[in-house]
Specification:
This protein is of the alpha/beta class and 170 residues long. The chain has one domain: Alpha/Beta hydrolase fold, catalytic domain (Rossmann fold). It is built from six helices and four strands; from the N terminus they run H-E-H-E-H-H-E-H-E-H. It is globular and about 50 Å long. The protein starts with 26 loop residues before the first helix and ends with a helix. The mean pLDDT is 92.
């Protein structure tokens, strides 16, 4: 969808995923990798021409990078507030220190200066839609776009997402 709009698309893999080697041991390492990928892009593009997108787990990295830099726009698709919040909802009895990855999106968002759009389906059984509602409540400037009846996987193919991207990329 995006490539058909005439844009370049850069999608890095996490360590140990796709064709990359290594393992992810911590937030610090994962977020540093995301920041390095962004710095690589800045060698070829001005920040006003960089749009960040994070889907699900990727919203943790995208929000972090947006908090450290000034991209043109941040899109988060099916984001969460933090992995600790998800842990607390489903496994509240486990101590936080057991979580190697915390990805505190809501903390990152305090330092994001660019426009932000969230697209989330109401029938997401992986990352509940309520997390996007909470982000919107904490940060009213966020543009929350709801896809009624859409699931976690289905949202990335949804016409609501395509329409939102098209509106911003115009």
């Amino acid at each position: 969808m995006i490539q058909n709009m005439g844009y370049d698309v850069f999608i890095p893999d996490y360590r140990g995923y796709g064709k990359t080697e290594g393992k992810i041991w911590s937030d610090k390492q994962l977020l540093a990798d995301a920041d390095e990928a962004y710095k690589h892009l800045m060698q070829y593009y001005e920040e006003k021409d960089i749009y960040l997108m994070g889907y699900s787990l990727g919203s943790g990295m995208a929000s972090y990078v947006a908090s450290k830099h000034n991209p043109s726009h941040l899109f988060m698709v099916a984001p969460f507030t933090s992995l600790i919040d998800i842990k607390n909802e489903y496994a509240w009895f486990l101590p936080d220190f057991l979580m190697r990855l915390k990805l505190p999106v809501k903390d990152h968002m305090r330092h994001v200066a660019c426009p932000v759009s969230i697209v989330h389906g109401t029938e997401d059984s992986v990352v509940d839609y309520s997390y996007s509602e909470e982000l919107k409540k904490l940060f009213p400037q966020i543009n929350l776009v709801t896809s009624k009846g859409q699931t976690h996987r289905g949202i990335i193919f949804d016409k609501v997402l395509v329409r939102e991207l098209g509106d911003v990329f115009k």
